[in-house]
């Protein structure tokens, strides 16, 4: 099942990397990238609704269905692109947009697998999360990122064909895995369990989930995603732009490929770093330290860029460091949530964390766009640095037990 997930996600990373490369080269407007990312996060904001459905069906069936849908969409887009080449960019945009509607199914199903493992052994869940995200990062970013940028420089057809093949491979591998182990639905509950208000979940309990769930608080997810957006997609466009301006022998496509490769290395090392840090300290300690270090790095890099001006190599080093910290934090936080909360409260907090995180990403993207993060990142780096310091304080909020079982 994990191998199938990697194959499927690899195809998505290739397509997304190609889309980012087109934005870096100016073929696709930065505003289009911002609009797409905003729409994606609006969709993520509906995760509680998705969780209500996905929690009641087999995760592997859901994942197989997603793979087949992506393969079908790739085939249709590929056919249109061959028949009407002038619609190629539009087909790519439409594919990425429609795929965002079904992406939450994969995200939730993966989280449910981790929660099932955490119910048995938290250390095993931490190992599962770290291993999964490390491999996804290596395959998706280190290989998929540069490959997507390369295919974008060749043709959109190459991007879509690659995704078609990998989606079919993912579905086949998952079907094979299902013959040996068929995952059961994680929940069998009434829809009222997920109401924000009502007899099963009063307003008091909802606000307790928001304000008294410690590091797993959905409000913390909101702030983390705003801070992360200050070094997110728009910042990577700036780094890729530096390759053209300050290392003139590199073009935009090559620059974006290098940026995504370095990002992938950081995303691969981060989960392992998080697992190692968790062994020597509590989840709160790791989250506190990573937030404070992230804040310091952003403020120092922003100050250096303002006063001296960073080189492409230094910018890549910054991307590597901040990505390692972000991915380490993600694994520790996700495992903490899976181990700390059970049953419907876990699903509530998990799905609301995704929703509030989506809102944070939307806000972060808008801040980055209006402050010209893709061309002048200093202001956003200072905002992100201050937010990370504030986040370090929030992780010490006390976790309280739910009112009812």
TrEMBL record:
Keywords: Membrane, Transmembrane, Transmembrane helix. SUPFAM superfamilies: MFS general substrate transporter (SSF103473). Signal peptide: none annotated. The chain crosses the membrane at residues 87-105, 126-152, 158-177, 222-244, 250-273, 285-304, 310-328, 349-370, 376-397. The keyword NADP does not apply. It comes from the Bacteria. InterPro entries: MFS_trans_sf. The keyword Transmembrane helix applies. This is Transporter, major facilitator family protein. It comes from Actinomyces graevenitzii F0530. The lineage of its organism: Bacteria, Bacillati, Actinomycetota, Actinomycetes, Actinomycetales.
């Amino acid at each position: 099942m994990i191998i199938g997930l990697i194959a499927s996600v690899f195809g998505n990373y290739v397509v997304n990397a190609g889309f980012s490369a087109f934005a870096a080269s100016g073929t696709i407007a930065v505003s289009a990238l911002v609009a797409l990312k905003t729409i994606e996060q609006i969709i993520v904001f509906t995760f509680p609704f998705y969780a209500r459905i996905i929690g009641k069906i087999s995760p592997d069936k859901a994942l197989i269905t997603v793979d087949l849908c992506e393969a079908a969409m790739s085939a249709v887009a590929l056919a249109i692109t061959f028949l009407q080449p002038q619609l190629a960019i539009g087909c790519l945009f439409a594919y990425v947009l429609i795929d965002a509607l079904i992406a939450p199914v994969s995200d939730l199903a993966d989280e449910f697998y981790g929660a099932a493992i955490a119910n048995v052994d938290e250390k095993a869940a931490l190992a599962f999360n770290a291993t999964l995200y490390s491999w996804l990062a290596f395959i998706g970013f280190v290989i998929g990122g540069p490959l997507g940028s390369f295919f974008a420089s060749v043709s959109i057809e190459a991007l879509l064909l690659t995704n078609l093949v990998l989606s079919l491979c993912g579905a086949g591998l998952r079907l094979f895995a299902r013959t040996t182990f068929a995952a059961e639905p994680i929940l069998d509950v009434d829809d009222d369990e997920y109401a924000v208000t009502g007899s099963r979940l009063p307003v008091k309990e909802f606000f307790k989930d928001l304000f008294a769930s410690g590091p797993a608080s959905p409000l913390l997810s909101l702030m983390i995603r705003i801070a992360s957006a200050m070094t997110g997609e728009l910042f990577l466009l700036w780094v890729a732009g530096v390759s053209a301006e300050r290392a003139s022998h590199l073009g935009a496509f090559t620059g974006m490929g290098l940026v995504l490769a370095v990002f992938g290395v950081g995303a691969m090392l981060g989960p392992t770093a998080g697992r190692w840090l968790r062994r020597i300290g509590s989840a709160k300690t790791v989250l506190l330290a990573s937030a404070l270090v992230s804040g310091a790095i952003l403020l120092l890099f922003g100050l250096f860029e303002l006063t001296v001006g960073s080189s492409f190599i230094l910018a890549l080093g910054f991307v590597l460091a901040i990505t390692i910290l972000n991915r380490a934090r993600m694994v520790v936080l996700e495992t903490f949530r899976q181990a700390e909360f059970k049953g419907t409260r876990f699903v509530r907090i998990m799905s609301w964390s995704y929703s509030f995180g989506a809102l944070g990403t939307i806000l972060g993207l808008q801040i980055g766009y209006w402050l010209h993060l893709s061309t002048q990142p200093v202001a956003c780096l200072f905002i992100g640095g201050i937010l990370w310091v504030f986040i370090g304080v929030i992780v010490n909020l006390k976790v309280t037990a739910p009112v009812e079982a």
